Amino acid sequence: MIESLNIKKTPKQLLIEAGIGTWSAVGVTIASAMFLIALVVTFVIFPLNFNWQGIEVYAQSYTQHYWQILMFVVPCFLIAPLYLILTVIIHRFTPEEKQILSLLGIVFAVVYLAQITANYYLQMTAISQSISTGLLDGTTLFAFGNLNSVFWSMEVLGYTWMSLSMIFIGLLFSGGKIETAVKWIFVVNGILGVVAIIQAVTHLDFGFPFSLVLFAFTFPASTAMIALLFNRLKKTTI
């Protein structure tokens, strides 16, 4: 993976870093699988009504549907720091001539982490508390159920940074079938994620968000494969 055998490390370094890589990739995989489940529950099994009818109407059913919002928000909140850790470990196994790509991947992952976790934390704290106490002034612009809210604009922008990171990280993978699969899953999803912000800015309607569905199913598969690669590398040092 990522020409890791060309990197000079002591067996102890390999064991520690490959171990962190394995478990961060496993963590991303689990959180991403939770996101997939939340996506299905929120939009298919028990679909939330995103036909915005005002903050008063939204507040009346907020308590009833808050568990669905948490199902969506919590996994995404966890993915961000775990993904950043994963990119840092991948950088540690990147040959010097390709480290510009891994560093760019880390840079965009840092911006993604900072923005997206703040966005989700806002939903779990300030917005939740404001609605539960009846202080509705200003919450319309940040409500999860309002697709024209600041929350969803920040959501799209945050995942654009992640998408750019995925493109640069994906380009680092080469070699076997698993590495090639990871490469193209990252690159294709990354490109589609960048297209999403173009759609948002230009107000173009591309219909059903197939890119979101593709990401939901393929991203956890790719991080599971990365975990497998790191685990194999760890076993070679034991």
Automatic annotation (TrEMBL):
It comes from Methanobacterium bryantii. This is DUF4386 domain-containing protein. Keywords: Membrane, Transmembrane, Transmembrane helix. Coiled coil: none annotated. The chain crosses the membrane at residues 20-46, 66-89, 101-122, 156-174, 181-202, 208-230.
